[in-house]
Specification:
single chain, alpha+beta, Chorismate lyase, 7-stranded antiparallel β-sheet
């Protein structure tokens, strides 16, 4: 079944068993990917201040007059084979509480700044099966050859709260991901 909206229960989207495992089991996706890769690496696609997508504004309650958030997009790879794409939207007020954002380089934001910080709480996951018409998928198609993308991509997202200020992390699962191994 194909859905192009976000849901709280992954079973509503009916993914295959492997994809359901990738979507729900690894709390820290990068750790699971490292267990499944021979040459795990991070490629930074962009990091800068820009306009977020409308649905990102909605979930973060961003108003049009607020300063532009920092948006960081990375691809997690096994060698040169892209496995997932991560997108983080960090509103101005949240960024003030995360020193070191500008020095991340190819380090992962979750492992470097989020998961071990006692001031940060992670919200619940939401899941989607996104069509090429989704802004998230359309932007990926613009960056990559369409040969690596299918007509829809699985995704999950969650809001983190740093001292009550939100930031949004979205993971898109690319076709070369392979089976989930614990």
């Amino acid at each position: 079944m194909f859905k192009n909206h976000w849901v709280k229960e992954v079973k509503q989207l009916e993914p295959c068993a492997d994809m359901a495992a990738w979507l729900t089991k690894p709390y820290i996706l990068s750790q699971a990917l490292k267990r499944n890769c021979n040459n795990f690496n991070v490629k930074v696609l962009e990091q800068g201040y820009k306009q977020p997508f409308p649905e990102e504004c909605d979930i973060l309650n961003l108003k049009h007059k607020t300063p532009l958030p920092l948006i960081r997009q990375v691809v997690l790879q096994d060698g040169t084979r892209p496995l997932t794409c991560g997108r983080v939207v960090i509103p101005f007020l949240s960024a003030k509480h995360l020193p070191g954002l500008g020095q991340l380089g190819t380090n992962l934001i979750g492992e470097s700044l989020l998961y071990h910080n006692p001031d940060i709480v992670r919200g619940t996951f939401e899941y989607a099966h996104l069509a090429v018409t989704s802004p998230l998928v359309s932007e990926l198609i613009a960056r990559f050859s369409t040969t690596i993308l299918e007509n829809k991509l699985w995704a999950r997202r969650s809001v983190f709260y740093v001292k009550s200020a939100p930031l949004l992390v979205t993971d898109l699962f690319l076709p070369d991901l392979g089976p989930y191994v614990t």
